[in-house]
Every structure is written in C-alpha cells, then in structure tokens.
Amino acid sequence: MTIIFRCNKCETINDIPSNHQYRFCKKCGKIITFELGEALIVSDSEAESNVFLQSGKLSTLEAEKFFDTADTHAQQISALIMALEKKSGTLLDIQAKALPDTILSILRQSKTNSLDELIRNCQMFGIPLSKIEQILIKLIKEGFIYQPKSWLILLA
Questions:
Q1: Out of 31-40, 125-134, 136-145, which region has the weakest mean confidence (pLDDT)?
Q2: Which H helix or E strand runs over 23?
C-alpha cells in the first residue's frame, strides 16, 4: 500500500509507503506528514497513483478528483494515522550536546533509519519538528547524512 498526498507548502504530489508517517517533500524539502482529507491510499499496482505522482501539482480537475477520492478513504487513513502515532520509541542514551550532534547521535543509534523513528526520538528530547527539519537540511547540505529515499535518513 502507498499513501499519495500533497505538500502543504508547495502543493507538490508525494508518495510514501503506508508504514511511514513522515517524509521530506521531493521539491521543497519540508518535512511533511499525511493528514486526513489530504491523502489517498492506493495499492502499489494501482495505475491511478501514477497519474497523481506524475502530475506534480494538481490541476483543478485533478484536485477535485483527488479530494473526492480522499474522502472515500477517510476512515482507513484515520486508522493508519492513529496506528503510526501509537508506535513506541526506545529511550536512547544521549548526552547533552548541541542539537545537530544530538540528532547525529540519535541516527547512530537508529535501528531502522526511518525519518519516523528519528522524529519520534527527537521529540522525546523535546526537539520540535521545525527545528528537526532545519537541522536535517543543514546536515544534508554539509554531507553528514543523505536520503536514499525520502522517508529514510542515513549517515554519510
């Protein structure tokens, strides 16, 4: 299953596997999550998903179709969001450091290298999502980390 949704900032169409909640927008780099009414759940073999993904941004007609279809999946998307939010994190042993060093330490101790796990662990340390986003963009530019997929973060 794949979730197709649009970035709240630049409205670019993005996709994410259904077992992930967060990802970087492929165009603007903002950390985004899918929300009820702004996402579609499609099977991986469904050709219709390619129409949305290749459109980049939605035309008025595509947007109407997108939101009509999204409304039919509201209960399934809601259940998926709740399940992802309930995932528990592991308390890590991180010494007090500057925020970029803390995020790098969290990545070193990561088991899955997913953006979801990183954000959950950072939030346990009280690091807000906007700050995580800024630091990750900086670390990517400096070459400390990279993204093989938009929902994965790996150390360089």
A1: 31-40
A2: strand 22-24
Instruction: Provide the pLDDT for residue 25.
Output: 82
Does the pTM of the predicted model rise above 0.70? no
For the chain, the C-alpha Rg in angstroms (whole number) is: 16
The CATH number of 99-155, from 1.10.10, 2.60.40, 1.25.10, 1.10.8, is 1.10.10
**pLDDT at 142 (0 to 100):** 92
- Find tokens 């790098």 and name the residue: 104
Asked if residue 124 has pLDDT above 60, the reply is yes
Delimit the CATH 1.10.10 region(s) of the chain: 99-155
Residue, of 36 and 128, whose pLDDT is higher: 128
The 8 Å CB, 24+ separation contacts for 121-128 are 121/89, 121/90, 121/92, 124/89, 124/91, 124/92, 125/94, 127/99, 127/102, 127/103
Q: Which amino acid is at 37?
A: G
Structure tokens at 34: 């899918």
Helix (H, G, I), strand (E, B) or coil at 61: helix
